[in-house]
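INTERNAL AUDIT FORM
Audit reference: QA-55
Scope: verify that the stored structure record matches its stored sequence.
Auditor: D.O.
Record contents follow.
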Amino acid sequence: MIRFIRNTLHPARYHGRLHNQRPPFFEGWYFKVVDATARHRFAFIPGIFWSGRPHSFVQVNDGERAAAHYHEHPIEAFWAAEDRFEVHVGPNRFTHNEMTLLIDRPEQQVAGTLRFGGLSPWPVTLTAPGIMGWYAWVPFMECYHGVLSLDHTIYGALTIDGQVIDFTGGRGYIEKDWGRGFPEAWIWLQTNHFDDAPGTSLTASIAIIPWVRTAFPGFIIGLWHDGRLYRFATYTGAKTERLAVTEHTIEWVVGNRDHRLEMAVTQGADSTFGLLKGPDTFEMGKRVAESLSATAHVRLTDRVGHALFEGTGRHAGLEVHEVEARLLKMIK
């Protein structure tokens, strides 16, 4: 019980020990890095999978080339600190403040260290320990989510397939997921590249959430702007007013008692998506198409209609997975 309370209040830490690493269980951390020119956009995802064929891994999504690589390691190559966020997968090391990569495979080579400064973590309180709010205390959720930094500065360089890329002055974002498996269907969006509002960040997701013998469309959205976090979530009483998805666009409007948030997302062409692996209860069998090249026009107003913020976020991470069959029907 003490370990459960401690880890719930520290969502960045490894949670596998709470489950005694019994299958099915997965945990993964997501480091998005974009250099100052915004030409080089990568997501590095270390993680562990306990089911079927247990193993650890580092996934790499190259947003410029729309190519993804899955670097598998033995389960014994994974190590995590118990009293802080520090994770090793083989020679690769990840913490709040930096990541060191040493990937030497025929399909990809990555080496170097990036350091992070000025992190903006999602606030953690006793009643709302992170982005999931009070749902973080529920012990039977299918999938848990955490946001470690909405926006931060990057220092350092990586050598990727023989090319030295200086990420100094770029922007980063860190989140994570853990649990039994990914949801049946979801939309996920993240951008912290607003030209006229540096430091502004948007993270938004909606998914089918199993609940006892039923399910519901749960969402969590955070807009970080001018040092303030505007939250819209199922657990705060916010409502989805409109959600429309076409082949290349998403229109999503949510509102709560005080504010209204409009998001118009352009997905981009199919060629901008890298194909990642995601967990189900038996294997890393889900095929997750993720773009790092989407755009999101955002408009935040108060309930009178006064605009509090309006801007377009570029180089957005975007996933739209199996939404037509059930998720959109549940919304309607």
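Auditor finding: record pair retrieved intact. The chain is about 5% helix and 55% strand.
Action required: none
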